[in-house]
Structures are given as C-alpha cells and as structure tokens.
Amino acid sequence: MRLPTAAVTAGSLIGGWQVARRTGIRPLGGAVLAVGGVVAGREWARTTNAATTGALVATYLGAFGLSHPLAKKIGAWPSVLAVSAATAAVSYAAADRRAGR
Questions:
Q1: SS3 labels along the chain
Q2: N or C: less crowded end of the chain, CB within 10 Å?
C-alpha cells in the first residue's frame, strides 16, 4: 500500500507539536514525530533513490529544527503550519507525485 508522504509528514509535524503542547510531555510529541519520520522514510526508500530519501529525511528533520526559532519570530501555530506545508510540498514533489499518487 502506498502512503501519501506529504500527508504523513505534515500530519506528524502538526500532531507531534499538538501532543507535546497538550500533554506537556515533549518526548511524547517527539515520539509522534519519530513515528511519522519512520513511516515516511520507509515509503521514500521504497519509491525513490537513496539520495532523494536522504534529502527528504533531512528536510523533515530540518523543518522540525527550524520550527523552534521561527516560532519565536512569527508564533507557534504559524511556524508549525509553515514548516509542515513546506515539508509536505517537498515530499509531494520529490516522492508522491513521481510515484503516481
């Protein structure tokens, strides 16, 4: 079964942030982020080459890292939505669209 990695990445970035925010347990939010990364990464590995998979993993992790300083400038929600949208767009362009989804 092929998964839309754009939805997985955006959903896990937003979901991880919400879980951490609502529970107050940051590692729990990190677990959501990690599960999303593993799911998307496995799909990327199946549908793209190693270089593309590596670039997409770096994009996903970079988005998480970027969301923190960006939140200080534009706010938490706008930051999370911006990095999630960017990550979803890159995932779609580099993997999902090419896989014929």
A1: CCCCHHHHHHHHHHHHHHHHHHHCCHHHHHHHHHHHHHHHHHHHHHHCCHHHHHHHHHHHHHHHHHHHHHHHHHCHHHHHHHHHHHHHHHHHHHHHCCCCC
A2: N
Residue 89, amino acid: A
| Domain housing 81 | 5-96
Specify if 101 maps to a domain: no
How many domains, in total, are found in the chain?
Answer: 1
pTM for the predicted model, two decimal places: 0.92
